[in-house]
Amino acid sequence: MGFSQLKINTIATDFTLTDAHGIEHTLSDYKGQFVILYFYPKDNTPGCTREACDFRDSFSEIRALNTTILGVSWDSSKNHASFTEKYSLPFTLLSDIKGDVTEAYKAAGWFMPKRYTYIIDPLGKIIKVYTKFDISAHSEEIIIFIQSISKPLTKSISK
Fold it and tell me: pTM of the entire structure?
């Protein structure tokens, strides 16, 4: 998992992590669709809850764009299960207890993950990185970005 793979237009570093229900998810299994890969500090904290609920509230619109949401933090699968249930989150939260994936994506902080978001295209390439954003408007910003590039990308994939 090299840091050089984090540049725009490079293949996203592949990984496998466990979700809130103990099911393993591998990033490369999501090829063929856009992926919002977002790293966040901690379940059940004010900012992280706002961000997760923003994605929840935009979930239908995001799914309509052939896009999957994967949230990653250092929380356990058990914590993710509680957080997911408490806020009715319809997307996958992944547990990176060892911090390897968070570190590979340059999202590791001193005491907890940083709030970073990567947009990965259907071919598995990183096409956008967000390191500073308004938590409450983040999903809308991503929707606008994916809408702006999805039509040209769809044409190039079908050729």
Answer: 0.90
